[in-house]
Amino acid sequence: MQVKEKSHKYNKRLKGLLKISDELKTLCDVEVATVIDDPYRNEPYTFPNNDVVRNTFIKYFKELPALERSKIMVTTEEFTMQRIKKLEE
């Protein structure tokens, strides 16, 4: 499949996913934060916007007990090593 075709299909499916996220937020009255590692941009795509997504994740992260938070947190070096290991698999 050519890059142009993949990009078109990706954008079509992204639009559908964002529509579903918005419907879920509206119809079910829930907080929705969508983060997509976009291969066609230099940064992740976020919905509804960066500030809302960041605040949503921070809010739920702060609500976790301290022990759970410490299990999730990693240094930049640890994160990089985990990514390298995963790529080597």
Automatic annotation (TrEMBL):
Q: Which PROSITE patterns match?
A: MADS_BOX_2
Location of the MADS-box domain: 1-36
Which cellular component, as a GO term, is one annotated location? nucleus
Subcellular localization is given as:
Nucleus
Keyword DNA-binding carried by entry: yes
Q: Provide any one GO MF term from the record.
A: protein dimerization activity
- Broad class of the protein's primary localization: nucleus
Superkingdom as given in the UniProt entry: Eukaryota
Look up keyword Heme and say if it applies: no
Query: Which InterPro entries is this protein grouped with?
Result: TF_MADSbox (IPR002100), TF_MADSbox_sf (IPR036879)
Key words, A-Z? DNA-binding, Nucleus, Transcription, Transcription regulation
Q: What is the protein name for this chain? A: MADS-box domain-containing protein
Lineage, top ranks: Eukaryota, Viridiplantae, Streptophyta, Embryophyta, Tracheophyta
